Amino acid sequence: MNILMVCLGNICRSPMAQGIMEQKLKKHDLNNTFVDSAGTAAYHVGEKPDPRSVDIAKKHGIDITQQRARQFTVEDFKKFDKIYVMDSSNLSDVSALADGKDDLQKVELILNTVFPGEDAAVPDPYYGGKDGFENVYQLLDSACEKIAVAIKDN
Ligand code: 4NP
User: Fold this and answer.
1) Is 113 exposed, middle or buried (0-12, 13-18, 19+ CB in 10 A)?
2) Cα-to-centroid distance, 93 and ligand 1 (Å)
């Protein structure tokens, strides 16, 4: 099982999602599941995660400093079984690159795992303060726990 976390810049939300998901995979002994992250935009390709994401992750015992931003590509539909996006704009950007319904079915708003059918967004924290990053962490932690338990139960 290969999981891809996607946001806009791949420096704030999806690197945190990747780090949290890696922690959950360890916690639940899901050794056959791999997780990566990407951004729909190329603005920050090659950069480390935003220092505010690094700090919040570190506060919760997760090291995301080794990650580097990359842009989502159509090849990702081949490599990944599930593509979790943060908001409706990520959803339309990724869906626009899909080749048919098998690709489209892989894409899901990550918070629909915790709030089914609500189509809620993980808010973009980039232009806000530290509280926004903690909020993102809490939302992603709930979602990743759900995802890990669902994989385990499958
Ligand atoms: P992310 O946050 O999508 O969670 O990584 C953003 C990062 C950068 C920008 C916007 C959102 N930006 O406009 O550069």
Assistant:
1) middle
2) 14
Question: Which tokens belong to 29?
Answer: 């002994």
Mutate to test the pocket of ligand 1, among 56, 91, 126, 135 (most ligand atoms within 8 A of CB): 126
- Classify residue 34 as left (phi > 0), alpha (psi -120 to 50) or beta: beta
Chain segment 16-26, per-residue pLDDT in tens: 999 999 999 99
> Quick one: DSSP state of residue 62?
-
Number of other residues whose CB lies within 10 A of the CB of residue 139:
22
This prediction's pTM:
0.98
Task: With H, G, I as helix, E, B as strand and everything else as coil, classify residue 119.
Answer: coil
Q: What pLDDT digit, counting tens, does each position of 94-132 carry?
A: 999 999 999 999 999 999 999 999 999 999 999 998 899
For residue 84, give the nearest of 29, 143, 124 by alpha carbon.
143
Q: For the chain, which domains are there?
A: 2-149 (3.40.50.2300)
Grade residue 154 by pLDDT with cuts at 50, 70 and 90: confident
Cα-based angle 106, 107, 112 (whole degrees, multiple of 5) = 115
